Amino acid sequence: MSRSTTAGAGHGWRASEDTINPLYPAAFELVVGLAVLVVVVTFAVVALVDAQRRGRSVALWLLAFLLTGPFGIVAYYVTRERVPVPTR
Asked: Burial of 45 by CB count in 10 Å (0-12 exposed, 13-18 middle, 19+ buried)?
């Protein structure tokens, strides 16, 4: 680490490239990726439970979710019937 010698740059130490931990970007990407995965899986599970309650093919929708990811989940919510389903 070196002292900043530029006029008006402020006081204290300057962070150089070698002082920044290279794992921070990777850790951030991992956390964001896991958060997205949790959201997608949650929506898929809710959609599959809803499909089962409505008597629709759970296997077909599961296959659609696995092949298309979030697009299959959106397709399910767009194509499902808008009537309330009685609870058992």
From this structure: exposed
Q: Residue 3 in contact with residue 16, Cβ under 8 Å? A: no
Cα–Cα distances (Å) from 67 to 7, 35, 54, 71, 73, in that order, read 58, 20, 22, 9, 11
| CB-based contact 46:61 (threshold 8 Å) | no
pTM over 0.70: no
d(CA 20, CA 37): 28
pLDDT band at 20 (very low <50, low <70, confident <90, very high): low
pLDDT band at 44; cut points 50, 70, 90 = confident
Token output for 70: 């979030």
For residue 16, give every residue at least 6 positions away whose Cβ sits within 8 Å of its Cβ, in sequence order, or none: 1, 2
